[in-house]
Amino acid sequence: MAWALSEEGKISWDWRSIGSLLGLMGVIAGSIGSVLTAMSWFCEGDSHFYFHVSGAMLLSLVIPLLAIGASCLDETEERCRSARRIV
Fold first, then answer.
1. Model confidence pLDDT, tens digit, residues 37-47
2. Structural contact between residues 12 and 3, judged by C-beta atoms closer than 8 angstroms
């Protein structure tokens, strides 16, 4: 599990869970970037430039964010496996 409940009943986040959320943000950034890029094909004037640049920036973030998320999910899985071995 990426997060755990503390003794006070609050959710405690660690760097693995935050990194996993960054991976999810990579998926969302890719979806929004694709839509903005497609919108730039149909727009003219200044909005064309805005949609094209915004879409390209979001699409360039996809691979690094997915790599961070995958790495953190692997760390979480390894931590869960090692916790099961100890018990």
1. 999 999 888 88
2. yes
